[in-house]
Structure prediction request, 549 residues.
Amino acid sequence: MITFEQVSKRYESGAMALREVSFHLEPGEMVFLTGHSGAGKSTLLRLILMLEKATRGQVIVDGRNLSKTQSRQAPRVRRRIGMIFQDHKLLNDKTVFDNVSLPLMIAGERYPDIRKKVRAALDKVGLSGKEKSWPMRLSGGEQQRVGIARAIVGMPPVLLADEPTGNLDPELSRELFGLFRQLNSQGVTVLVASHDLALIRSMRQRVLVLAQGKLADDISGSDIAGPAA
Amino acid sequence: MNRDSFRRRSRAWGRRQSYSFFSSLGTLLSHRLGTLMTVLVLGIAMALPIGLYVTVSNLRTLDLQREQWGTITVFLNSEAAEAQVQELAKLINLDHQASVEAISPGQGMEQFREASGFGQTLDLFEDNPLPWVLLVTPRLSDGEDLGEAVARLDAWLQERAEVDLVQIDFKWLQRLAGLLELGQALVSVLSVMFSLAVVVVVANTIRLDVASRAEEIEVLSLVGAGNGFIRQPFLYSGFWYGLLGAMLALVLFNLGLYYLQQPLERLLDSYGNQFEVVNIGGSGLVLIVFAGGFLGFLGAWVSVQRYLRQLRKSGMLGRL
Prediction:
């Protein structure tokens, strides 16, 4: 589903964010991406989302080689990916419903379908009945789940999350990861960037470790020791 | 692409448009005061050239009836007797191919009484101080210039002993014609300038709009909105600004016209015309309203293209 082949990314400032990173994610896999801050996690996700272009190497998502894709095709690529942000990226002057429905509006779906799908997505993240709330009135955990609802409402085959637990307490973080696992069990490919090692370990899933832009380790789920979640 | 998928895509396109359409309306309504101010500025800017245009085109309809405007008013000596007057009138009619209307001092007094409203005050005169008056209108043969015909008649009349004063409206009319030409040129220049002003005002408003919604644009872009989807609500906003501005301009203009209509008609009737101010017709109204909408759209387009490019350059929407 996602393939990196010898991908390097050098920013205009000259900083090397990624150095010859290669890995492959099968459809339906759930993988965690970890490393210190500045190790290149965000850059890696931004490459998949076509927010940046690789300096060298190939990024292939859902059968499409992004290195060879024109930038005006970026919206099309992004519509096939659900992205969850650490700072939620919600629109505070729009209701929860309007926030979650954005991807469907962009896709030009019929309004009755939009209503049905938004309700289903909110249901899935445990926010039924909050359609008319304003994001600012919700707790951090709830806001994050609104972001997740927006990411999954269009049923994209790939779900990315960048430090989704950054602002959440351990209890909520565990719940959130449980939600990712549940989505993954429905066939979605999930890639979560997080530095919460304890939590990642408890998930017993494959883990990619980045260090100074290099892929330092690629650990399969069965090799992870420690207590299960 | 087969027909089915084409239909599906065009339906999705239509739904996206309607979403942008309503979201732009919602934005305008949620910033009522700002919208009102912008529309007011646009309305005033557009009312000016519209007003001038209607004024000039009304005056031009007058100018079309030129022969009548060539009428010369001839005031005779107070000593001139009726028989002398009739003879002079016949002479003018036969020798100069001009129609003549003679107004006796009595008729003149009657008309003055009606028009001036002095009524009984005029009864205070013991004698009627008014002289005989001839209204001489030259009839033009083919290709003859009204100016020349009037000048010839004038020269001949000045020689006559019975004639006290010859008054020609025609010179004034020539000046008016010149002024009208200037007025028309002014309408064109002002229309271009004020259209430009509309574009600039809308462009500036939309620029602020884009800036204040940079965050929203970023989010839209992150969840897969294309350029068109991001741009569309702003273009609709511009269209609405222009459309509402033009409608307000027409309202302002008609209020002004309502206030000016009576004095204007009185003024023009004093030149002997049953005159009615011709307002802008139905198709003209539609044209103006949509021209306003188009100008607003244009302003929004210029602005959005420019500031979206800036946002993109800043890297906010990704670096590709």
Q: What stands out?
A: Chain B has a mean pLDDT of 83.
